[in-house]
Amino acid sequence: MADTASIKGLAVITGASTGIGYELAKCAAQDGYDLIIAADEARIVQAAANLKEFGVAVEAVDTDLSTIQGVDKLMERVEADGRSVDLLMANAGRGLGKGFLDQDFAEARKVVDTNITGTIYLVQQIGNHMRARGEGRILFTGSIAGFMPGSYQAVYNATKAFINSFSFALREELKESGVTVSCLMPGATETEFFKRADLLDTSIGQSKKDDPADVARIGYDAMLDGEGDVVSGWKNKLQAAVANVTPASMLAHQHAKMAEPGSGEK
């Protein structure tokens, strides 16, 4: 049981072993928040060790966030801490490249279960506690991918469209509650996402990408400011603006050029 007299707040960050999630956790640690970080890989333990260098308490939970049982495991650790969660950064996400009919359905379903089911289940658990006490901040990691039909990333882009939309709906529902909801919408970022999603041979996989530390800082600051959404980077802002006025069929065709297997070799 943590010392409930601690003046530090508590932040929960998912998908925090590497990339944007790790950088979000670093932002919170630098601000003096104690951390509970989670991911579905053993590297979350090393991430926790690194984050302790900021002088805060860090607890790592290695759990499958695509399952209800995995989220329950994280919630058990949160509740055992004995403190309220001040910041929830729901960042866990999974991608998958190649044409939908060529994908293993179990892998496609894991994208849906991680990006949507596990995410909104966790947010409902912690969000209810926040609403009950009248304060708290929630940050979703959405994506500008949610603005366009994702040919050769069809399932992933669709899940991010869900998260982008869901975050705004939840924000409206909680606007009088003292709980803020924000959505970070990055573009292509230099993380292990593209390797894990088998997209390294694509045009987007081989393109120059944003720094995850910069992306995380933009999202973290937006959350603290209570902003509804933030698109990181001027190129991504332009792409998002163009997507809003471009026919879906054209967007799907453009995305295929970026994500089609072998497009990085053309």
From TrEMBL:
Task: Kindly state which keywords UniProt assigns to this record, in alphabetical order.
Answer: Oxidoreductase
Instruction: Report the protein name in the record.
Output: SDR family NAD(P)-dependent oxidoreductase
User: Keyword Oxidoreductase: yes or no?
Assistant: yes
- InterPro entries from the xrefs? NAD(P)-bd_dom_sf, Sc_DH/Rdtase_CS, SDR_fam
Q: Does the keyword Oxidoreductase apply?
A: yes
Q: Which family does it belong to?
A: Belongs to the short-chain dehydrogenases/reductases (SDR) family.
Record-annotated membrane-spanning stretches? none
